[in-house]
Amino acid sequence: MTEDKAKLINGFITKAGVREVTAASNASLDERRSYQPPRCDVFSGSYSCTSPDPTYRFSVDHEAERLLPDMVKNKLLRIEVVESPDENFKENYHRKRTIGIVFSGGPAPGGHNVIAALFDAAKAANPSNRILGFMMGPDGIIDNQVTEITRERVDAYRNLGGFGMIKTGRAKIDTEEKMALSRNTCKQLGLDALVVVGGDDSNTNAAFLAQEMAADDIQVIGVPKTIDGDVQVRDADGKVLCAMSFGFHTAARSFSQQISNLCTDCSSDMKYWHICKVMGRSASHLALEVALQTHANMTLIGEDLAEYVDPDKMAATPKSGSTNFGAYGMTLRHLSRVVCDGIVRRAAVGKNCGVLVIPEGVLEFINEIEVFILKLNTIIAEYNKTHDQDFHQQFLRLEDKLDYLRDLARCLRQEGGVNIWNSHDDELFNDIPPFFQEGLLTERDAHGNFQFSLVETDKVIMGMVRDHLDVLRETGTYKLGIERNFYTNLLKRDAVDPEHYGPVLFSNYHDSTDHLLIRTEIISKKTLKQAIEKAKLIPIDSDIPAAIVKIYEKSVPKFKTQTHFYGYDGRGSNPTEFDCRYTYNLGLTVFSLITNGATGQMAAIMNLEKDFSRWMPIGIPIAPLMHLEERKGKLALVLEKSLVDLHSPAFQVVRAFREKWLSAIPGDDNYRLPGPIRFAGASEETRPITLVLNDLGRIDEARFDEARG
Ligand code: FBP
């Protein structure tokens, strides 16, 4: 570039107008940053206190009693306003504190507001209070990588998505060494409290850290975060304490906005099936909310598939009191048939297109896959233990891993007895495509979770769907319905009598349907010709009329798909107003729990499903919620993930509308367009539809119970 030209460009980019439109900041971002979320009533005054509420019961696991003796007796804490605090209370409340905070696991919209509220409350209580952010997740605690949170940083991130302020990571403080290092860091920094913002595994970690540091008087408070929505808490009597983790609403709204755009595109050019995989490692909460938000044509819900009972297999079971385990749960093959059924039925009414939502973790609910995951977890854990080496480091290539499995099957066969990996497993495993084998053999994350985001779930399912559609095409059952008017007009234009050809070509010509279906036996031009000749509509060996060929060709559906993955994009989205106020009040709850001496508690807001005026900040004891679960092939004490409750009103609604949203009838589809996430305006929902429906359902149940007396 010449010097003159460079000068010219330099002059141009420094112009006020150019600077304005290329600035990183913009009006909507400024508006977001300056938004002040409202506070729950209990935080309207200067002080709040906690009071244990023994009416909420928990059934404590023996292992929790053994491992977390100082935490299992914690009660649910109500947070209440203190109108006239005594001097002792005030002194304690205002005493100088240093609080550490860490993000753990995947980002979830709203996390910055937890920090913002904690910062605001801490500085209001005592301007010398310090908030320290651990960098890059729990590794920041282990390695003492910390940064002081300043007002400037907080203001820059208020109401913004991501975890950019202090970053995040997936490390787990799961060994004595890491625990000791973490404890050391907290002591060295003089922490009064540590706040762990994370999902089920991170809150599990918070309970263990609370136990570990109880002797040092370092409090540990958890915060329920995850877009997956699987941190939901009830007490032993089923009372909802935390209806949803933060970040879920935003992620679901973000996915829904984009998926509803696909619905619009698909109903415009009628050309593609859009296959939308949505995040949610295990539970299908996000997919359920997306279904409610968009009314996509088909949405798979993993938990629903796991509950499937095959009526044919059940009927075939001898009535001798034996149980046919093979009848329970859905197989991959059956799932592909279910999807094909929807595709074929829509095609029959001229809609060879649609939107299918697949939850990322759906395969975990498929019988044979679940068994593989469990078996492989155990085999890998055993290998690591016996060889004191990491299986994945040892066998880098897929082929090496498969060889190991083959050898294992052979050795175990020679030993006899019941084997974890037998020749049948080996054969089945070798039958699945390599990319899926690789997926099943990927390394578990630090918490022992299977990394479904690395498996091409959609490819596995759609591969089988495609194969079965080919079969259905060959057997003449997958056909594109032809509009009656189109058929009549086309034939008349070419001076061919539609009434002559209609009954020969179509199986439903005499029905009053809008869409005509070519007979199943007509599956090629050859069979078309045979049918027409047999009906004596054309002499033997003469040409089929061009209009008839055109109708036939039109009736052969091409199955064209576009696949999309909705996950990281929604996870990084700016929070909805719901998540902004939820997380801000969680941050205030954290500070209240800390000043009132709580530890091993998770900050939460009860009544999230109701109007904001009824939101009730609380502390939920973590240890009493924990139970034993298989992780990396071993039993571990963890916080239970909440799966989609098939009896919940939200799921019942989705099930009830399944047929309507499939729209396998002529006419428009039933799509719902939720629109983009907006900060204000009438179209913005105040909370997830799942929560609204579950709340409405509970009210109805209560009325029903009342009426029944
Ligand atoms: P968290 O449970 O840590 O919030 O993360 C949830 C999630 O977004 C899942 O939906 C997804 O399967 C996973 O994280 C992806 O993990 P990664 O960020 O390691 O690719």
Give a structural overview:
This protein has 3 domains: 40-246 and 575-639, Rossmann fold; 248-317 and 326-472 and 561-569 and 649-692, Phosphofructokinase domain (Rossmann fold); 479-555, no CATH class. The protein is 46% helix and 13% strand. The protein has 29 helices and 19 strands. β6 (193-198), α10 and β7 form a beta-alpha-beta unit. The model has no long low-confidence stretch (mean pLDDT 92). 1,6-di-O-phosphono-beta-D-fructofuranose binds at residues 105-106, 108, 170, 199, 226-228, 279-281, 360, 452-453, 571.
CATH architecture of the largest domain: 3-Layer(aba) Sandwich
Count of helices? 29
Share of residues in strands: 5-15%
Mean pLDDT: 92
For the largest beta-sheet, the strand count, sense and barrel status come to: 9 strands, mixed
Return the structural class. alpha/beta
Fraction of residues in H or I helices: 40-55%
For the record, the count of structural domains works out to 3
Query: How many β-strand runs?
Result: 19
Tell me the Rg in angstroms.
30 Å
Bound molecules: 1,6-di-O-phosphono-beta-D-fructofuranose
Strand order of the largest sheet: 1-2-17-16-7-6-3-4-5
CATH topology of the largest domain, by name, is Rossmann fold
Shape: globular
Q: Span between N and C termini? A: 86 Å
The first-level CATH class name of the largest domain: Alpha Beta
* Low-pLDDT windows of residues: none
